[in-house]
Amino acid sequence: MELPPCFRLHPTDEELITHYLSNKLLNSSFDAKAIAQVELNKCEPWDLPSKNLTWRHEGYFFCERGPKYSTSLRTHRTTDTGYWKSTGKDLVGMKKTLVFYRGRAPKVEKTKWIMYEYRLEDSYDKI
């Protein structure tokens, strides 16, 4: 897929939730050409730019949220080399800040990779 030259994607938080995320969840034929679907648990942060056509200093992705354990409500956020850790409090109720840490406890290294997780109400927790 190709996007027009000089295409930039700079949606607001509201546009991300109301236009992209809600349409993705409620309309199976919705296609956001500028936002790729990825499995964040199988992708390291430094590999993400190659999966996004609009990447410059940031990118947008759809990703299904999976449970950490089959009987758990906690979200699985680990990769082969590290994990995404939630920091601070939830912002705007449906936006969470995540920081990537390389390694496993007790030897971990905080990286400069930051991700914002947007979600709809709990009933739409799948993506």
UniProtKB/TrEMBL annotation:
Domain NAC: 3-127
GO cellular component terms attached to this protein's record: nucleus
Any one Pfam family match given in the protein's UniProt record, by short name: NAM
PROSITE patterns found in the cross-reference section: NAC
Keywords: DNA-binding, Nucleus, Transcription, Transcription regulation
Keyword Calcium: no
Gene Ontology biological-process annotations: regulation of DNA-templated transcription
InterPro entries with a match to the protein in the record: NAC-dom (IPR003441), NAC_dom_sf (IPR036093)
Molecular function, one GO term: DNA binding
Name of the protein: NAC domain-containing protein 100
The species this protein was found in: Dendrobium catenatum
Organismal lineage: Eukaryota, Viridiplantae, Streptophyta, Embryophyta, Tracheophyta
